[in-house]
Amino acid sequence: MDSLGGLLGRTADYASRFLDSLDERPVRASATVEELREALAVPLRDEPVAAEQVLADLIAAAEPGVVGIPSGRYFGFVIGGALPAALAADWLTSTWDQNAGLVAAGPSAAVVEEVAAGWLRELLGLPARASAAFVTGCQMAHVTALAAARHHVLAEAGWDLARDGLAGSPPLRVVVGEERHVTVDRALRFLGIGSAQLDVVPADEQGRLRAELLPDLRGPGPTIVCAQAGNVNSGAVDPLEEIAEAAATAGAWLHVDGAFGLWAAATPAHRHLVAGVERADSWALDAHKLLNVPYDSGIAFCAHPESHRAAMAVQASYLEQVDPAAARDQMDWTPEFSRRARGFAVYAALRSLGRSGVAGLVERCCSHARTFAERLGEADDVEVLNDVVLNQVLVRFGEDDGATQEVVRRVQDDGTAWLSGTIWQGRAAMRISVSNWRTSEADVERSVASILDAAAAVAASPPR
Predict the structure, then answer these.
(1) SS3 115
(2) Looking at the DSSP assignment, which residues form a beta bridge with residue 223?
(3) How far, CA to CA in Å, does 347 sit from each of 54, 100, 102, 342?
């Protein structure tokens, strides 16, 4: 144990030094994939290697390939940082090493999820009786919620899915927006629902589903509607109130992809964007985005706990399961059997921030996004392509796709900031996602300067 304590102490010292270096180190990785393979792909020895040596070698070999995602100047892929309390709780999660599948395997892990889920329902304005599942990310939150939806709408149509399976069941129809996230399609594919069963509704210029073009949701057959709170490119939110009204009138299930946009409900300044979201039947969101807990952390909520549990629950003679009225075995609500106790980090993040802190974190990210749009939009030959309503900014440089793509590449190579490219309405764009608690006004100004320097260099010597 003395040796273990020393190892963990040295690891903590390194972690502190790494985090302290974020203001100065390049955000990009400094090594190529080939260089990392050469450094990491050492022969596996027959004899053991001391843990201290393993960690020292791992740090030396891997750190050049570590991207500064925790940095305040990382703006790629809607990836948040890790709040101090959440990071520390995540270390405890590994130390305690609880299997968060059964109450019997870790009662604290079970109860902390119950408490954190209750806080989240309150913050986001979701129904008090909504059930929750802590999963890896929004992808599996979609799988979980849409499995509950599939079970529910088929049961409403008189079909016992658990007994009879999908073969021969009433045909399902899923109504989706043209600008939905790809994880929705993949979740549906996992659940045996193919692209031919999708009814795609056109989107407007900001990527919002056009509610006036919704088909008749009363049939034929069981219907699930998928709406979006936060387009991954523009940040735009579908007209949730209108969609919820249409779904309720027709008796269709409404699922909301709220990976990052649902956090707007936690702040008075942006709550109006998601008006009507509480009327949905299920919701999916990420805590590792705007709540800033370490990867991975997704959450599914369901307004019909009976359908949720029926879609997920499992029993076996060797399991010590509890009375559902007394506590909840987590594996009855998630697609996983054994799983990491993700609830500790979520609990710590929420407890450390409080209601005002969560609102402040979301509002700061959105404010920084507006600053990016204002500062970049003032420059010549720079076009901001979206209405900046949340934390997403789309920017284009000149009329040529190649120029925009070259500016993105130069900014990434420079290392001051990291952001990504995308295709928006058929044209190349730079996508800036502000999602980190560390991001300061100074980080935004440094990043804007790097972007404008790259744009000037490209304008002076445009790509061929």
Answers:
(1) helix
(2) 173
(3) 32, 14, 19, 9
Rounded to a whole number of angstroms, the CA Rg of the chain reads 23
Phi first, then psi: what are they for 74, rounded to 5°?
-100, 120
Looking at the predicted structure, is the pLDDT value of residue 390 above 60?
Answer: yes
Summarised one tens digit per residue, pLDDT across range 257-267 is 999 999 999 99
pLDDT at 327: 82
Sheet holding 427-433, edge to edge: 382-384, 392-397, 427-433, 420-424
Q: What are phi and psi of 134, to 5 degrees?
A: -95, 115
DSSP 262-330: GGGGGSTTTGGGGTTGGGSSEEEEESSSTT-PPS--EEEEES-HHHHHHHH----TT--PPPTTT---G
User: How much is the pLDDT for 316?
Assistant: 84
Question: 220: cis peptide before it, omega within 30°?
Answer: yes
Amino acid at 74: Y
Distance CA 46, CA 33 (A): 27
Cα–Cα distances in angstroms (integers) from residue 409 to residues 67, 173, 381, 420, 430, in the given order: 15, 41, 18, 9, 10
Q: What is the DSSP letter of 346?
A: H
| Longest Cα separation, the chain | 72
Give the CA distances from residue 457 to residues 407, 427, 428, 453, in Å, rounded to whole numbers and listed in that order.
8, 21, 18, 6
Query: Looking at residue 202, what DSSP letter applies?
Result: P
